[in-house]
């Protein structure tokens, strides 16, 4: 990497009375006063970084004692190439009480020829390099992004590490991530992103415009933004999305090379976007929506086409549901919307659909999404569909090709929305912030409201089948044989015969099928008011060689009841569990002292692992350390010894190992005593 962008020196010109020559201007209070009070002490920078709406102090030294009754001076702040007072890019700050300034100024102390000046930037001033830094505030109640919950504020602005959830809603996995918003060079990289976007200086004080611009700039689709998306499985010319462990390397690579970084998928976009927002002081968190619909025609439907026998027609079924999808929420007021729609706003940098001609999404009020007010900017209708679409099964008439809805599943999509609990390594279910309970009166009212703005659900209500079908949850390790169970329950007073089609597929997390490895067609005979269980053996040799990244298997069973013609269905995503890395710190970790970290992984599989790629990262402790193991035979343990330090505050060491079949990760938290 080339060195990160270096901020210019403090630019503070002074307007002085002729008899009061200036000798120097400095900010010696940074460590004692400014950075602790502004919560900017975590930024790795030698320069003054302050937040809007809060006073910071400068020391002005003259060549003689300062006399308030006789001497007048003002401090001027400038930003951009052509500073103008009318545009807020030239700010003269007077310390005289009888002179009004956009920013407040006062004399804090005067001792001989040294004057301590207190300056309070306006809470809506421009974010950027004033030759000192002014960051978006989260601690001034008058700021548009003030978050009054202290625990949420600590988590969503100051926490440098976090957890991103993935997998399945009932079998969730965690991906540790180093956001690194205070790492050296990251703030410069975030400001460079706005420069690269040619974002007008005057817009950079508006959190709404900053978030919307960044949602476009974090992907490279139409503006040479930060990250190149890739869902193909071929990452020859870059880093596999599952291999990233943090945002710092990505942002520094982008700011130094000025070219997009390869590659990303949704959680990488969300994690780097999170770093950008937190670095600028905008409260932000990553959220995960399990079973996320991609609806681009506004009909709130995901269509599954069945043939006349009840078997899925894979050639005509084009829609897919992502097993999970990650986006961001950022906290801000929305003066452009009616009262009550401020607070958490959904933003998404993953390039899915264009908005106003660019690949971006949001900010959309989470309250507006929940209450069906999808006319409000920006992109609320798209996000509403991601958590509210129906899965509609259609039976296709082979004679004329017409489609008849035979089953509607209104609870599959948006099954659960989660984020991290502030201050804890635990998840928080926030589904109720996006939608009312399925079938509730409030939910029906919301759908009616959304329909007023053009979104439509399937109106048909096919009768419920009197045979129920379920596939219970399974926890399966990579490489294991296992049993797939189908549970049938006949609720009628008559016998039922069901012809069932069971398909097992290796899928990407986006729900797109890679290959089919299982297909069975059992016939099940059910006595009245009786239940029946069908068990199918799934062998590892059938799916292992077909696995793609993240190791997802998708089973879908459809059946047609012979006596009634009714269709029954059940779907199950199985996320194969991978073994964990063992991470240990040798001895007692102490601040400013080196330590040894041992990483171990034992190959538990019945086959050898080739080209094992290991990435080790620890914020402020261990720089990014990639390692490559050519061969790891079965039952062999591979130890790695790493030297780290100095240790700062409590931190995690995050490890991510990418194999040909899956990613494997481990984590250790070290509390370092002084």
Automatic annotation (TrEMBL):
List the GO biological process terms.
Answer: blood coagulation, fibrin clot formation; nervous system development
What enzyme category does the UniProt record give? transferase
Q: Which reaction does it catalyse?
A: L-glutaminyl-[protein] + L-lysyl-[protein] = [protein]-L-lysyl-N(6)-5-L-glutamyl-[protein] + NH4(+)
What would be one Pfam family of this protein?
Transglut_N
What does the record note about the cofactor? Answer: Binds 1 Ca(2+) ion per subunit.
Keyword annotations from UniProtKB, A to Z: Acyltransferase, Calcium, Metal-binding, Transferase
Chain positions recorded as Ca(2+) binding sites:
388, 390, 438, 443
Question: InterPro entries, per this entry?
Answer: Ig-like_fold (IPR013783), Ig_E-set (IPR014756), Papain-like_cys_pep_sf (IPR038765), Transglutaminase (IPR050779), Transglutaminase-like (IPR002931), Transglutaminase-like_sf (IPR036985), Transglutaminase_animal (IPR023608), Transglutaminase_C (IPR008958)
Give one GO molecular function term: metal ion binding
> Known EC number(s)?
2.3.2.13
Give cofactor(s), names only. Ca(2+)
Q: Which residues form the Transglutaminase-like domain?
A: 258-351
Question: Key word Transferase present in the record?
Answer: yes
Where in the sequence is the active site? 266, 325, 348
The UniProt similarity line reads: Belongs to the transglutaminase superfamily. Transglutaminase family.
Q: What is this protein called?
A: protein-glutamine gamma-glutamyltransferase
Q: Which organism is it from?
A: Oncorhynchus tshawytscha
Gene encoding this chain?
Answer: LOC112261032
